[in-house]
Structures are given as C-alpha cells and as structure tokens.
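tool_call: predict_structure(chain=1)
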Amino acid sequence: MTETAKALEVRVEQKLGLLNWNFEELNAQLDAQLEKYRGLTFTDDQMPEAKKTRAALNKVAKEINDRKIAVKKEFCEPYERFEAQAKVLIGKIKAVSGEIDAQVKDYEEQAKTEKRRRIEVWWAENGKHTVELEKIWKDSWLNTTCSDEKWKRELEAEKVRISNDIYTLSLMADKERPEKLDFLLREYMKTLDVRRTTDAWDESERAAEQARIEKERLKQERLRREAERAELMAKPAPVEAPEPKAEKGPEDYLYSPTFKLIDLTYSQAMDLTNYMKKNGLRFVSVAKERREK
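tool_result:
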C-alpha cells in the first residue's frame, strides 16, 4: 500500500491564459463620445433624441458585459473540469483511508485499554492501597510515547509523595485534640494536597470559634433576660396613693348639696370639674343637658 501511494504522481499541464483586446482604443473612443453628452440638457422637443442616445449607450455597455461573462466562462471551464475530476479522486482515496483509519483507531483504543489494565494491576500490587488510582491518574500515560518505565517511575514518585505528605500531617497531631489528626487525614484523602488540607483545618477552627462566640453571646443574652424577669417579679406592686381629701375645720361637717347649673359651656364645665377634683370634692354627674344658644 505504501509503495502504491508513492508511485502516484499528480501532473498538471497548465498554460496561463492570455487576453488581448483593444482596451486602450475603446477607452479613448468612449471618452471622446461620452464627452459630447456629459452635462448636456435636453429640451422637451429633444426627448426622443435623448432616449435614443440613452439606448445606444446602454447597448454598448451590455455588449461589453456580455463579452466579459463569455470570456470568464471560457477561462473557468478548464478549471471547473479539473476541479470535478480532482474531487472524484479525492473521494476514492478518503473512502479507503476512512476504512483504514477506523482500524487504526480501534487498534489504538484496544492498546490504551490494555495499557490502562497493566497500570491498574501495577498500582493494586505496588501502589498506595488507601489511595484510588483515579485521584492521581494522568491521561498522558496512555500515549504511545509514554513507555512502561516512565509511567511506573511517575507512579512510584506519587507513592513516595503521598507517604511523605501523610508523615508531615502526622507531625501536626495534638494529644489534647486527637480529632485533629483524624480530620487532617480524612481531608487529605479527598485532595492529596497538604496545603489545601491545612487550610481546611484552619477554616474549620475559625468556624468553630465563631460558633462558640455566638453560643456564648446567646447564653449571656438569655441570662440577662432571665435576671430582668426575676428582678421585675421581686419588686412589690405599686400602691396607688389615695386622693387627697379637703381638710375639715373644727366646725365643718359633711353634707351633700345639689346644684343645677344653667347655660354652662363645655369649657366652663371642664374648669368646674377640674376645680372640684383639685380641691378634693367628691361629686357625681347625674345628668347632661345640651342647650343651643
């Protein structure tokens, strides 16, 4: 197949087209003739002549345009024929190439599947059993340019790095707070990143401190309200002072006279009522009467 492909040689005999026409002659003649009509004003009687002149000029323009189209078609015809033939050949090549491409891709996919299986087996036997392979996986290991020695070397490096990270975290253990190491190891297994793990611990500490402060604030607020209620319950109920009574002289005695006030305004009635209250006089309103002035 390779020799046949090399034997194919594309040869194209191409002659550049050459167009010669009397452009300069036509250009000069056209300028001379158009000059006679440029800026010309026709009267009503000359309108038939103007229409004839317009038709003659348009006829010349159409003739030039028709000739242009014909020449273009004549020039393009060899290329269009060549293009159609080239597409036929390309189509045949792509049809066969596509079949080969499908086989190549299937072979490469099978090779990747087999290579991935070998990597998984190696990690299961030699890797860090507590760490899933997916967490450190690199797609580049499946490339044909990546040898078995290379991916094994990189996996060994990952294994060493993880062990060193776990040792580093173990140094951060606190005897008084055994939950700290459990938190660090649990978080590390999520990301396999020491920095992110320690940041997560610091964040959890800040959140716990904020929760403790808020809890203490709510407690103090509750105690304050309870103290206020206790203080309020301990106070004796206020006793209303009795209304002052008018002092009686040695010859005074109590009696209940009845008065009927005539033509008393509202303002006067209020003043009288306030006066009696101020002087400790007890009274009863027995009737209210409204009269128009």
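agent: Residues 45 and 51 are 12 Å apart (CA to CA). Proceeding to next step.
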